[in-house]
Amino acid sequence: MSDSREFCPRCGDPVDERVEKRPGEPRDGSAVLCDRCYFADFELIDAPERAHVTVCGRCGAVERGNRWVDLGAVDYTDVAIEAVSEALSIHINADDVEWGVEPEQVDETTIRMHCTFSGVVRGTHLTEQVTVPVRIAKEVCDRCGRIAGGYFASILQLRAEDRPVRSDEANKAIEMVERYVADREQDGDREAFISSIDRSNEAGPNIKLSTNKLGQTLANRITDHFGGTVDDYPTLVTEDGDGNEVYRVTFVARLPKYTPGDVVDPEDDDGPVVVTSAHGRLKGTRLRSGQRYEASHEDGTTPEVQKLGRIEDAEPTTVVTVEDDHAVQILDPETYEAKTVSRPAFFNPKAEVVPVLKDGIECYILPEESV
Q1: Are 126 and 217 members of one domain?
Q2: Pairing state of beta strands 292-294 and 306-310?
Q3: End residue of a domain, out of 139, 164, 190
Q4: Same domain, 21 and 60
Q5: pTM, two decimal places
Q6: Whole-Å CA distances, 22 to 7, 25, 34, 92, 315
Q7: CA 148, 153, 159 angle in degrees (round to 5)?
Q8: Residues 6+ apart with CB under 8 A from 340
Q9: How many domains does the chain have?
């Protein structure tokens, strides 16, 4: 030990001057002790007698302070390790600290954490072991409680103009809703959930959602995909603690009367149209010529047309011969007689079979990509 003019106030032995300090800087009281007296009262780790973790028995979320955090916990060992690590404190003078833990599952609600710590203090390597039991308490988080109670803040109704919603439209819209809400949950939004999906209404499904923002967003996303409009109907349900009015809003995503895949006749002597878009204005392809069709700005998505059917109604029909640039001969899908029909621009002259929609005595070749 090097010479020093300072002596341990507890035992009187000389104290090695290990810590350099600037003039006038106060010295830590423990620094004046010799190593023997210093380590006599030294604790490398300050550990609690026990730790507590509260988890949701339904979704596995963990309570952190006054909020719940989605961890999807099933095996609570990692949660217990994190709880213990947060509750422990390591002496400020320890350097090169390392630690390990060995969990022991005592029962379903208790995990005993055997922790080993090591560090360097005053040039001395120290090792200390502590055991902290972690109690796992199961409760129901606020989100799961609201779901179980059937809570909802908005209703999203899927409807169509002058027709019921088709099953494929309903399936696609519900898929969009479920995917969006799942993405919000994945991003940690605990306010986002679906309360219920009701398909029993013949006009279209009703979906109950956790927030008005969710209802508005999903109604807009659905009409962005299908076309159509969104209407909202707020209903006052209560007041919050500050006296602010709380509304439950019904959002109606109303799909267009005609949708892609419909075959309609504008009755303008240019022949039927297979609809390709119902956004803004009705658009499609003429079945006689293959030329582009677009309704006037005034008519929008609901021009005066006659619906002839849908592309699903088309029948595969044999091509007999290509007569010229304007006509092709096919077999009538019902009578199997040879019949001459218009040759649209989208017709492939090498095709042996084409989809054909029959309306009365008229037959129309449909674009292959639309079927």
Answers
A1: no
A2: unpaired
A3: 139
A4: no
A5: 0.70
A6: 20, 5, 21, 20, 95
A7: 110
A8: 323, 327, 328, 329
A9: 4
